[in-house]
Amino acid sequence: MIPWVHLDTGSVPGGGTDLRLMQRGDEFSILADTIELMNNRRSGSEAALAAMTCERLKDRPRARMLIGGLGMGFTLRAALEGLGPDARVVVAELVPAVIAWARGPLAHVFGDCLDDPRVDVRESDVNRLIQAGPGQYDAILLDVDNGPEGLMRRSNDRLYDNWGLKRARWALRPGGILAVWSGAPDRKFKSRLQRSGFAVEEARVHASGRGSGPKHVVWLGTRTEGPVAPARAESARPKTAR
Questions:
Q1: pLDDT in tens, 164-213
Q2: Given the DSSP bridges, would you call strands 137-142 and 64-68 parallel, antiparallel or unpaired?
Q3: Calpha distance 71→73 (Å, rounded)
Q4: What is the pLDDT of residues 46-63, one digit of tens each?
Q5: Cβ neighbours of residue 164 under 8 Å, at least 6 residues apart?
Q6: For residue 222, which phi and psi values (nearest 5 degrees)?
Q7: What's the pLDDT tens digit per position in 114-134?
Q8: 218 - beta bridge partners?
Q9: Among 12, 65, 68, 84, which is 20 to 30 Å from 122 by CA?
Q10: In this predicted model, what pLDDT tens digit does every residue of 11-46 receive, in sequence order?
């Protein structure tokens, strides 16, 4: 058995759990403590997040997309395959080391997607870009932390609470899509998404992309134009490792 080798550690700005980049042969893994966040051999659900969104943007040749989380680039690559030549993709990545890994030890995983003229990678909290102005995007894709029940830092919760979801709706153009990746189902989050002014579809997608093994969850919320339910107070959610 080939042992895992620790290549690098990335500090999360503002505190939280550090990320570790590990390698075993041609397999790479990014961990938060002992929890695996992503692996280059299990990228099916991350790619599906973008592919399913792009399918719903076919009538928008100049679509503007915001991706929260660079990861190993699987969502970005799938987005570029599904979008037209006049589309634009902004990628927000909070952890500087993740961007460095994309140009360094993971360069072969990313291929040439970072050099695509449609791509703008920003070292930023995606929440800041969401708040930049109304109607900025045709789609917002969140592959941040481990989904609504995060592991890296508590402040990521603000992306998925009532306020964060309604802010995302505000940042979308009419009929725009909020697509969210999660490591596990979350009925409370799905209900919250519906109450925040989205028509919601839920898909269970195999992590491997080959129709076997564990499944992750992708929610696709299409912005509706009807009234939005009043925000409800939410108690703090405990962190649970999976």
A1: 999 999 999 999 999 999 988 999 999 999 999 999 999 999 887 666 77
A2: parallel
A3: 5
A4: 999 999 999 999 999 999
A5: 127, 130, 157, 158
A6: -95, 125
A7: 999 999 999 999 999 999 999
A8: 181, 203
A9: 84
A10: 988 877 899 999 999 999 999 888 888 899 988 999
Nearest-CA neighbor of 77 among 40, 112, 27?
Answer: 112
> Which strands, in side-by-side order, build the sheet including 137-142?
119-123, 88-93, 64-68, 137-142, 172-182, 215-223, 198-206
Question: Residue 117: CB partners within 8 Å, gap ≥ 6?
Answer: none
Q: Is the pLDDT of residue 240 over 50?
A: no
Task: Tokens 């099916």: give the residue.
Answer: 44
* CA–CA separation, 216 and 207 (whole Å): 6
Spatial distance between the Cα atoms of 192 and 230, rounded to a whole number of angstroms = 11
Cα distances (Å, whole numbers) of residue 94 to 14, 97, 165: 10, 9, 19
DSSP state of 42: B
CA-nearest of 90, 125, 88, 110 to 38 is: 110
Q: Rounded to whole angstroms, how far apart are CA atoms 65 and 87? A: 8
CB of 241 within 8 A of CB of 224?
A: no
- C-alpha 123/C-alpha 99 separation (Å) is 8
CA distance linking residue 23 with residue 4, whole number of Å:
5
Task: Give the number of other Cβ atoms within 10 Å of residue 240's Cβ.
Answer: 9
Query: Between vectors from CA 94 to CA 140 and to CA 65, what angle results, nearest 5°?
Result: 20
SS3 of 78-118 = HHHHHCCCCCEEEEEECCHHHHHHHHCCCHHHHCCHHHCCC
Does residue 218 contact residue 234 with C-beta atoms inside 8 Å? no
CA 117 remoteness from chain centre: 21
